[in-house]
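We include this case.
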Amino acid sequence: MPLIEVKLIEGVFSQEQKQEMITKLTDTMVSIEGENMRGVTVVLVEEVKSGDWGFGGKPVSTADARALAARKGPGQARDEAAEQPQLVGSSGRHRMR
């Protein structure tokens, strides 16, 4: 009987999102083990109190996790440096690029 444990910082995911995790993780295990295992696949979603989870020696709060989730993924983030005009040239002669 497979047991999948998922630990999350409290208050980050909605009840609907947690249900989706349970469904998709169960479906993934069934795709590996076969349909007969659906009824005995257990997914346990456990929420950890805000601030009781840490990365790199620093506690992470619900607000921190929400801020991270609100950021755009790789390749979608705006490259502010690329948007800034750059001076090119030498000898006191510069032009905008």
Q: What stands out?
A: The CA atoms of residues 2 and 33 lie 10 Å apart. The first strand starts at residue 3 and ends at 9.
